[in-house]
Design a protein that fits this description.
Mean pLDDT: 88
Structural class: alpha+beta
CATH topology of the largest domain: GMP Synthetase, Chain A, domain 3
Strand content: 25-35%
Number of helices: 3
CATH class of the largest domain: Alpha Beta
Low-confidence stretches: 161-166, 170-178
Largest sheet: 4 strands, mixed
Order of helices and strands: EEEEEHEEHHEE
CATH superfamily of the largest domain: K homology (KH) domain
Number of domains: 2
Radius of gyration: 18 Å
Length: 178
């Protein structure tokens, strides 16, 4: 049994239905109609026998924030007629033990955006900030989601996993404290 495709409930509401099934121990499937089924497991931090090749809900939570930022960046850049040649994004989620158990205290998004000209660099700064402001996933998260970005003139020549100095940016939704 798969989940139904997103459909409009009204002009003000969309629904995304997903089906999950228990596999064994602390492993479940995620099933979405028309997409490949995948498994999710408790991470090694909480289950020493966790399979290392299966994603965890915690990884998916951080992935939701950075992937939403990436698609927002691409979409907002079109609206602003800002050109990029490439971008790469990393994210770090920090879990902390709190009164009711573990929860995300913060997610930090680090984006490197490559542009062809100095003119594009100026436009892209506004785009980078707007994409963060309008990211619906980050806006829906209880924890603060911080953005650091660096805009580089020229082709992408940095491996996606390499660190860098980033300009910090925070929009109003990053200061959600619950």
């Amino acid at each position: 049994m798969g989940a139904s495709r997103p459909h409009s409930m009204s002009k003000e509401e969309l629904r995304y239905a997903i089906f999950s099934r228990w596999v064994k121990e602390k492993i479940v499937t995620i099933e979405i109609d028309g997409k490949e089924t995948f498994q999710v497991a408790t991470p090694l931090d909480f289950w020493p026998d966790a399979p290392t090749d299966v994603v965890s809900p915690e990884e998916l939570f951080v992935a939701a924030a950075i992937s939403c930022y990436g698609v927002s960046l691409s979409g907002v850049s079109k609206k602003f007629h800002a050109v990029f040649t490439d971008f790469n994004i990393t994210g770090v989620g920090i879990l902390q033990k709190r009164e009711l158990g573990w929860e995300f205290a913060q997610i930090t998004i680090n984006a490197k955006i490559f542009v062809p000209t100095a003119s594009d660099k100026k436009k892209m700064a506004k785009v980078a900030e707007r994409a963060h402001t309008y990211c619906l996933v980050a806006n829906s998260m209880k924890c603060p989601v911080r953005l650091n970005y660096e805009i580089i003139i020229g082709p992408s020549s940095v491996p996606k996993s390499e660190g860098a100095e980033f300009r910090q940016y925070s929009s109003s939704h990053t200061d959600n404290q619950a």
